[in-house]
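User: I'm putting together notes for a lab meeting next week and I want to include a structural view of one of the chains we've been expressing. I don't have a solved structure, so I'd like a prediction I can at least talk through. The sequence is below, exactly as it appears in our construct file.
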Amino acid sequence: TNDTKILEKNIILIYKPIELKEAIINNERPISIKKDTITILAKSFLQGNEQVVEDLLKKIPGINVSEDGTIKVGNQEVEKIMVEGDDFFEKGYKLVTKNMPVQPIEKIEVYQHYSNNKHLKGIENSDKIALNIKLKENYRRQWFGNIQLGYGLAYENRYEVRSNLMNFGKKDKYFFLTNLNNIGFDAMGDIDNLIKSIPNDETSNIGGNQSVNSLLFVGSLNSPNLKRKRINFNNAEMLSLNSIFSLSNKVKIKTLGFLNTDENDFYRNSNQSFSIGSTTFENYENFIGRNSKITGFGKIDLTYNISKIITFDYTIKFNKSTEKNRSDFIFNSDFFNERLQSNNQLFEQKFVLTNKFKSNKVLLISGRYINEKTPQIYTANQFLYQDLFNQNATSTLQNSETRMHFTGFDIHLLDRKKNGDLFEISIGNQFRKDKLISRFLLKNNETVVSEPLDYQNDLFYSTNDLFFCGKYHFKFKKISLLMQADFHLLVNKLNNLEIIKSQNPLFINPKLALEWVINKKSKAYTSYSLNKTNATIIDSYTNYIKTSFRNFSKGTGEFNQLDS
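Assistant: Thanks for the context. Below is the predicted structure for the 564-residue chain, given as structure tokens.
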């Protein structure tokens, strides 16, 4: 109807309070610090274009990744990169960072003042840094992996195959990876730290600086100073199988192995014009080189926790590699080529027994045995040495070989005082025996026309080093003072073409160092030392050895120790 009515009702509301349940807001910090551990949440720095661990680390502030894949926290390189607390590759960590996919990562932990030996934590003075990768819960204790395939559709045959298969269980861990590519990607990184003994400041590193010396190099195979990936014309295949087995609460075995082949090509063309007075001429050079290398490496680590305070570590490793270098270049109208084949064979054993017999005292007994040899064969199709040899030769050939046997042991005691001072003493013995053989031939086509007498070498060199080292580290709040003295009693023997020489020198190498920690970000350090370094076989051979196509070198034939 068209009638309008007004309805009015009075409603009285009864007051009743409503209790709101509490709300808890959890805010995860991207970076948190607890004592010596820095924890970094991976998801806070992921942008979606990361493929491997190295890509993630580049995004985290404070972590620097160099062009070759070296990882540094600040300006200090990391000691190792672990996965769920276990380490596969030690200093060869680039095998992890360059290949492991980034998706499973939950956190990155940065350990400061890290000790490789758990019994030395808090006792030794350590500035080492290590990283630990923590995985997401749904990736733990199960198999997972990825595969990436790429092929260039342009006129050049470019490809990449990358795959990973892994399982990081509570007891056993597996990490299998493979990479095949010719796009300039280096999947291995610098693995010399993994294969050979590298000098470092590790407490139980007896023999850590022992290796054979290669004599010959093809110097023309040098890369220009450009980004590695832009100039790395490669053809690489790599397979790596690695496992960690926890046989019991006390015994853990780590097996590591890889096979790597690679070919690197080098090209260089140059044209130089010269004008000297009225004389003008040009030089043309067209260079092609290739480096081919096959490396097979295996390693077994055994850790036996005899008790809570005693641990026995044993390592055995084997390496066999073959490297072939060739260069062909035309200089104006002259054609020159050189060929060099180098083979390396390494067998090494090491043990460390650690006894933390008191909360502030640790005794370490370590030993190492190394057997390594590197034969080399070098040929050149041109005879450039008319000023040295009066021979009708057209080419040269040199066969050489260096061999090394090393045996050493060390007893090391560390005592951390209540006031923070650290007292260390070590005593041990190192024995090394080297053999060097070289044979230089002048050839006319395939006929040997001469073996110059002053260009042949056959010698043995041995050194026995009985050493004692004492070290005391004083701690005065923010100032530290280090006093150290090393005593070396040597027995050197040189047998060169049946001429035998020997000597028994005594070295005393003192050192004094002062460190001032200004604040958390700054410190000042100064040191003064006197060192006498023993001669090696490379310093002592008497006849010439060809070291490149235009160079010969020789030693002094004497025991020349160097002072610094």
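A couple of points you could mention at the meeting. The two ends are 117 Å apart (CA to CA). Residues 360 and 416 are 5 Å apart (CA to CA).

User: Perfect, that's what I needed.
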